[in-house]
Amino acid sequence: MRLARLIRTPHMQTRWSTAMATGSVLARAHSALGAEDLERFESIVGRANVITEDDALEAYNTDWMRKYRGSSKVALRPGSTQEVSQILAHCNAKGIAVVPQGGNTGLVGGSVPVYDEVVISLGRMNHIISLDEHAGNLICQSGCVLETLQDYVATRGYTVPLDLGAKGSCQIGGNIATNAGGLRFLRYGSLHGTVLGLEVVLADGTVLDNLTALRKDNTGYDVKQLFIGSEGTLGVITACALALPRAPNSTQLAFLGCNSYEDVLRTFIAARRDLGEVLSAVEFLDSESLQVVTEHGVKDPLGAGCRHYMLIELSGSNEAHDAEKLSTFLENVMEDGSVVDGTIAQDTAQTHGIWRVREGITEALSKSGAVYKYDVSIPLTDLYNLVDEMRDRLAPLGAFVTGFGHLGDGNLHLNIYTPGDFQKSPTVQQAIEPFVYEWVSSRRGSISAEHGIGIMKPAVLHMSKTPEIIDVMRSIKGSLDPNNILNPYKVLPPP
Amino acid sequence: AAAMRVLVGVKRVIDYAVKIRVKPDKSAVETTNVKMSINPFDEIAVEEAVRLKEKKVATEIVAMTVGPTAAQEQLRTALAMGADRAIHVVTDAQTVPLHVAKIFKALVEKEEPGIVMLGKQAIDDDCNQTGQMLAALLGWPQGTFASRVDFKDDKEVHVTREIDGGLETLSMALPAVITADLRLNEPRYATLPNIMKAKKKKIDKLTPDGLGIALKEHIKTLKVEEPPKREAGIKVESVEELVDKLRYEAKVI
Q1: Strands (E) located in A41-167
Q2: Which of B37, B77, B196 sits opposite A331 (nearest CB)?
Q3: What is the CA radius of gyration of chain B?
């Protein structure tokens, strides 16, 4: 759909809206931009950091999956917390809506405008402020790319307590704003625990400096927790302090094949029992997922045609001990038939090759057809039943179903795709929703384990949170952002 | 076809992905607590040998290494990939190609293989000499930098080599020494049943003295240094400034 050029004068108050990928037109209550707003932005960040060309704006307006597309006319690239503060103060006073944006790798459309909200990109704010090697703390600006941080702290014997497939593009501010989970959640836990401090700019430009790096600090309400997972709707994160675990001296990685989901569960329970304290990742993928990823250049390590596959990673302090532990564990699970085949990575090349199998699925899916993506938490015993039922429902429509995810966290990534067909189909959509959410809700699961709500799921938030809780969320939002300028239309459903 | 034994040489080296550090006393590279792996080109040589056995060209694969006790891990990797047994010549001395070639020659004389396969070079010293020296000591033909190996029968092998101008194919009589280059094959992942079986396969332990080989040091390492840090580049405003900098700072014109 072509976007018309808007000619503005300080006297015109033209409203402009674009039909949304969600199909519904949400009520807009924000001001449009005038020339004096652009001038003010230029005076804050400099002309070079005010983006207004359509070509350049394409990237800011479109999400990674190319599923959601906004029509913002302005993207700003501030270079400091002060600049963010000044931008927000201005926007709050004028009622101009904004979307804070990091690496724009989110999977629920939370990081792109719905209409013409001004995009505030944190990408220029990518300085590492300090690394305390004794305490194991990192303080950095929110625009730092995750992989850059990982490489930096690795040289000093530390690791970032977070890892995910998008690491080459996602930024730590976005990770924190979405409370990203990832591949090592099993070992390092949630960002709610590992984020020690934050610097946040509120809607009215107030800078909250809670950038301390203390492990223990019980002094009043832990306000920073509100912003972790708030998806940019309560404040803009500009800097953070992270607790860093020591980098392990040794890692072991096994890739295993199982004949049934029951065998997968049996193997996981045995792993937790026998490898417990050194387990750092337990991932699973079904043969449908393996097929998709191997169709896009990734090598199948086993060529064994198993029903399900698991990745089990150990991180410990002693290579010989951990290799021994893994070896004994594998002998046991092979003996009782839970595992029918597998391999242990012999060197870094094989370690990368095996991780590529799990981390490459999302990208391979996006190249295979239109993808309908769901991220749910379900009790472990029930987890794969959802995939089987969806497969039955969708086979007649020619859609394929893949299931993979963080088995250790009970987190299933259910991905349905139409091979060779990149057009979204309402028939397929209707066969999936609301069935999938009702299924999850009936088992008291989460309709969004780690991806968040964004623009995709406000309408089903009530399926995992009671009305009373949603009301408390609304009152917090109303208190911190009374003019609703921070990432409007996201997370909370309209009242 | 007659029985043909393949001897494959492997080396324990620092894993290719590790960031190399020089010891503070500049005597050597830091290896304590550093991840070690099989030399990638040797892994390719083992894979080729295993494929020869699967094609029934080879009847037995013997992996061999010269190195410290821990090097047996790399022999286990080779055994897990499909080697039948292994020979470990144990020494803590820093190995150099000439010594390894002499030791391998002694093993060749014991084992009488039809083919010796090695990686083209080790990624720690980048010498690219062992295969060539071994062939010369044995008086055997050599097919180095192999990107393809075709056995015509049990007397002749065609080796395609990657050279600067393109690809060159040589024909040579067996027995011969072949060294593997990157594109020869993509090594397999060792599967669990094979990894378990490998624990029970035989590794014979020998010593250089036991083979009658004296490891006389011909070369002494004086100093190991990191390369100079790369300076940040600069942008110049004009051609005149560029010429000025080339002449007076870089001193290249």
Answers
A1: 50-51, 75-76, 98-101, 118-121, 128-132, 137-141
A2: B196
A3: 21
Q: Collect all residues with Cβ–Cβ distance below 8 Å to B35 and sequence separation of at least 6.
A: A250, A347, A348, B14, B15, B17, B18
- Which chain B residues contact residue A306 at CB under 8 A? none
pLDDT in tens, B163-182: 899 999 999 999 999 999 99
Each residue's pLDDT tens digit, A401-418: 999 999 999 999 999 999
> Could you give the C-alpha distances from A76 to A2, A94, B137, B186, in angstroms and in order?
23, 16, 70, 47
ipTM: 0.84
Q: How confident is the model at residue A20 (pLDDT cuts 50, 70, 90)?
A: very low
Q: Which two tokens stand for residue B247?
A: 């002449």
Q: What is the token pair recorded at A174?
A: 């976005």
| DSSP 3-state of A59 | helix
CA nearest to B146, candidates B113, B124, B168, B116:
B168
Q: Which residues contact B54 (CB under 8 A, 6 or more apart)?
A: B82
Strand ranges across the sheet with A118-121:
A50-51, A75-76, A118-121, A98-101
* Chain segment A434-451, per-residue pLDDT in tens: 999 999 999 999 999 999
Q: What is the pLDDT of residue B237?
A: 85
Distance CA A167, CA A386 (A): 29
Question: For testing the chain A interface, which of B191, B194, B200, B226 should be mutated: the one with the most A CBs within 10 Å?
Answer: B191
Stretches in chain B below the pLDDT threshold 50 = none
Does any CB of chain A come closer than 8 Å to the CB of residue B123? Answer: no
Question: Which tokens hold the place of B21?
Answer: 């550090």
Residues of B in contact with A324 (CB under 8 A): none
Exposed/middle/buried for residue A15 (C-beta within 10 Å: 0-12, 13-18, 19+) = exposed
